[in-house]
Amino acid sequence: MTQIPHDHPRYKSLITREMAVEGVKKGITSTQGLIAQGRGEAFDYLIGEYSTESAKEAERAATAHLLLAKKPVISINGNTAALVPDEMVELSNIIKASLEVNLFHRSRDRIDRIIEHMESHGAENVLGRKGDSVLDLSHDRRMVDHEGIYSADVVLVPLEDGDRCEKLSEMDKVVIAIDLNPLSRTSQCADVTIVDNITRAFENMLQYADEMKNLNYDKLREIVDSYDNNRIITLAIDEITTWLSKFSKESGTKRL
Ligand code: ATP
Ligand code: MG
To answer: Among its keywords, does the record have ATP-binding (predicted)?
Structure first.
């Protein structure tokens, strides 16, 4: 891994990039995954590289949904396995969720490698090898495990495809997306849209899960019922606009 000095102003972003590159070298992340990461970085730059109020509100509602769920599943792909393996294991333990590998660029080899990688980070019983049920899609993300995503009531889909997100919603599942692009089809169709970097989103959700794990049903229901995803997406876009106009004014001053 390239050495990034700790005092670099964009240390966290550069380390995350290096982790994605390591993922490719280990054969768990696809090369296309690097392009997705680059697109994410661009949106993160426009957001200001921090967890906004809208992101935190969505993360709180997502955590409440996961704690209320009867059968929650966290979907894993090559990018999330490279960037947040420990955090996915930790969250799945707190909320009692299954972990399932689901890939757009699916191959038996890569599924095995991702599962082994997750096991080396403490995961147990990772699903995704069977692919014994299908969603109504024409690409490989249609293949899911019956005991996992197919029968889940709440699915956390970090870095998802818009069309699979739509299918999961049509199946009456609660879909929670993490996507730095508030305009993507995934963001637009999810029930809870977290516009945040997955590295920050998992950190925040772990904290919320710890704070909320002993809340009773009524309290969790209250959080879920008062949540309005349309308002959160609008707010996420407004936050980018506000950040950009602040930035534009400040750099205008510097130029003068
Ligand atoms: P859609 O099919 O929903 O329109 P897309 O085709 O734009 O989405 P992909 O190319 O599959 O999406 O990329 C996945 C998405 O993940 C991108 O929108 C990108 O902004 C986002 N993304 C990439 N890296 C991260 C990250 N580290 N944290 C959060 N989101 C990320
Ligand atoms: Mg896509």
So the answer is: yes
Please identify which residue in the block is written with the tokens 């516009």: 195
Instruction: Please give the residue range of the domain that contains residue 116.
Output: 53-236
Q: What is the pLDDT of residue 10?
A: 81
Classified as helix, coil or strand, 133 is strand
107 is written with which tokens? 């191959």
Residue nearest to atom 6 of ligand 1 (CA): 161
> Residue 90 maps to which CATH number?
3.40.50.12640
| Length of the chain (residues) | 256
227: how many CB neighbours lie within 10 A of its CB?
A: 18
The structural domain count of the chain equals 1
pLDDT tens profile 201-220: 999 999 999 999 999 999 99
Confidence band (pLDDT; 50, 70, 90) for 252? Answer: low
Q: Which two tokens stand for residue 95?
A: 């909320």
Q: Is the pLDDT of residue 255 over 60?
A: no
Lowest model confidence (mean pLDDT) among 23-27, 105-109, 192-196: 105-109
Which residues place a Cβ less than 5 A from the ion ligand 2? 161
Whether 231 is in a domain gets the answer: yes
CB 66 within 8 A of CB 90: no
Listed in sequence order, the residues at least 6 apart from 170 whose beta carbon sits closer than 8 Å to its beta carbon are none
* Residue 226 belongs to some domain of the structure: yes
Q: Is 185 in the pocket of ligand 1 (CB under 6 A)?
A: yes
pLDDT value at residue 254: 63
59 lines ligand 1 (CB under 6 A): no
Whole-number Å distance between alpha carbons of 113 and 26 = 8
Is 244 within a domain? no
The answer to whether residue 38 sits within a structural domain is: no
